Amino acid sequence: MAELRRRLAGPGIYLSMGAFVTHVQSAIPSVAEGIHQIYHDAQILEEQRFADFHVALERPASHRRWLRPQVIFRFDGYTPFKPLPVNQAFALFEWGLNWCITTHAHQYLIIHAAVIEKEGFAAILPAPPGSGKSTLTAGLVNRGWRLLSDELGLISKAGLIQPVARPVSLKNESIEVIRHFASEACIGRVVKDTLKGTVSHMRAPTESVVRAHEQARPAWVVFPKFDTGTAATLKPMAPAQAFLGLARNAFNYSLLAEDGFRRLATLMDTTTAYSFHYGNLEEAASVFNALAEQQRAYG
Amino acid sequence: MHWQNSSVHTADCAIIRALREPTGLVQASAGEWDVIIRQGRRADLLARLHWTLEQTGVLNTLPEATRAHLESAQVIARKQAGAVKWEVRKICQALVNIGAPLILLKGAAYCMGGLMASQGRIFSDVDIMVPKTCIDQVEAALMLHGWVATQHDAYDQRYYRTWMHEIPPLMHLKRQSVIDVHHAILPETARLKPDPALLLAAAQAIPSEPGLFTLAPADMVLHSASHLFCGEFEHGLRDLSDIDLLLREFDTVAGFWDDLVPRAQRLDLARPLYYALHWAVRLFATPVPSPVLHEIDACARPSTPAKQLMNTLLQRALVPDHVSCHDALSVPARGLLYARAHWLRMPAHLLAYHLAHKALFPPHSAAN
To answer: Computed over its alpha carbons, how large is the radius of gyration of chain B?
Structure first.
């Protein structure tokens, strides 16, 4: 930990996360702590190499540094966001990485979605914030599903899902829900009063991190919706409706133009789409396990 | 970290060398690629590098992680090229009844004219030129079709309308696209005075695009040179790369090289052309015939101290504004060139008035 902190404050580290290598520099202790705890199983490389993104989290030199210390996110010297209170430094690192990917990785069709995999079949869970997507993802990856991504579903030219083995972001009540649901889950420091409310991050399961270079074939597109007290119901969805739902949740659908259309059309041809309402994580897990079982049995 | 903070020798800058000698990239190390991608991203030249590598057949030999960044940049450039074509069609429709020729400038001209300089180019806005006598009609027609003024400050409006070579930029209400409507290529107050009538008279119709014109080949080069060497260096390297590609493309146009320097003299743009040709040769090894270089030297070479000072400044302003290219003089060099650009735009008394106004009545965004 001391060594990690020293390197982060100095030449920086190269953090491997599946599709990308990020060069990180920061002298802020909570960043080192977050990387140590939440990126525990990630490959940390010290040798200078090609990095997809060069980022730094710094304390801006302003009069606020004593009264209300802040943190800024730098992308290779460029500052895309306004400063935040310094206790949000690790969250800002995660949000900044999301920005790096969504603005620079147009070799993928990027969908705002979680992606999980079992027995070689991947489920894409696109959803706007507040639909319980991250809670469901955190739950399922603690019940035998492999985490491919919590926020960004990356669809390659070949139509496969490229993993980005990064932490799962948890907000507000879902932090306690996951603590209760999976006591073995490693959840980091809880930060209150951010733009997204109370946030924390859950370490990705070791197996997901180790297999972060293994792409997966999508089999399902499931639009989740959390409703307190609702019994888990999985309803087939018309492909056209699912297509529009995916396009709405894609970051670069219009940028990719015809290619984006083709990738989504292929995805609809090779997957089954559902809408999914749930009020309880255990029930949700058994529905998803049944889905995987059925797929394994019948192909 | 031997490749960071490397020497400021401009021609050795990683992205410039990559664009100039693409076949050399087959042997580039991961560390070298790291710097090339970062510099290229900062200079908006990654998509152009993608195109260059595609042309030379090098693209498929690259490491996958590197190629991904080039492809990603190319996706953006391709989308922007499509958007520019769409905007130009919309402008054409808006101006169909004006009866004046619609001359496209810079990126939009390269794009609609199908020139190499449009390849892998990042666009910010669409620049058009119309005769000054039509400018009110053009502005009114564009406003009827949804473009509105972006400068609401009365002083800024007057600044543009009295002194500049363009009216205040217009932005489309729905698409947020910006048009710069020019009636000349340099401000009316500028020290150099290219006559717009000469440019209009020589404009050429784009064969495949009825109603659309570009400047003549030599004038396109001269406009780009004047924009770069009398103006700002924010996209300096990208603009010089455009000039390199224009010169390579027009190499086959009959009489192009013979007419270039005389045309520059007629348009009062010999000095910008001097810098453009020499820096294109120096950074991109552009094949400029040596008689043309002698000809421009004879009529436009600055005095030795002026040349040395400009070299000192330009070698810092033409590299990407990235940490790997910075040295102790980078910031003052860019500052001095910025001051020089203003000096060239206006006579001293107007400049003093303009700066005093900006200092006394700062724009709202700066005051907050």
So the answer is: 21
